[in-house]
Amino acid sequence: xxxxxxxxxxxxxxxxxxxxxxxxxxxxEGLFGSYDNTAxxxxxxxxxxxxxSELTPTLIVDFEAGRGRLADMEKGKLLGFIEAQxxxxxxxxxxxxxxxxxxxxxxxxxxxxxATFLQDRGFSVxxxxxxxxxxxxxxxxxxxxxxxxxxxxxKGWYKPEGMGxxxxxxxxxxxxxxxxxxxxxxxxxxLVDPASESSAIGxxxxxxxxxxxxxxxxxxxxxxx
Length: 225
Known about the structure:
- It is a single chain.
- The protein is α+β, with helices and mostly antiparallel strands.
- The chain has a domain at 57-142: CATH 3.30.1330.60.
- It is built from 7 helices and 6 strands.
- The protein has helices at residues 2-26, 28-32, 72-84, 106-119, 175-184, 199-214, 217-224; strands at residues 50-55, 58-62, 92-97, 124-129, 137-141, 144-149.
- Strands 2-5-3-4 form a 4-stranded mixed β-sheet, covered by helices on one side. Strands 1-6 form a two-stranded antiparallel ribbon.
């Protein structure tokens, strides 16, 4: 009786061993089932997308009825708008181009008031034609570009559920490079519409190298002091 039980136990153990061996030779899914959230080539791309969006913040500058002078309160609004949008020296600010017909020169004066106020502070002014103009007001526009990284990167560091037998990069790989590029670029517009380079930039660089090789760079800087 004991011999028969021993033989049955040995047979059962051998069958279990064969099943486990067969399952392990196929794939881990045979043992643990399939997972939907494991790293895959589609989910684990090192190249993360940077999206550049165009935004146009707008400020409405009001005028008193029948007057073309810019009130002090409206000047304060313009200064606050410049600071809030972080408009840098030399950047272009657009001013609504009003309808000059039938205004007896009032709209021209209002446009000149806003444009002069901005130009005196070092900003470039460009007129923007609009279909409709509100009475006793002008709109000021500033076109800015914002770079954002792939939304998947916003999840932060995470590891997909399931077995990591694929030996693939994790989904967040590449997010650091994309985030660093989006954060350090001076003007995100250059990613979609690069600014044209001037030949003077190369000429200045070449001249500096020539002076350095000739040993006159130090003398030039000393003479300028």
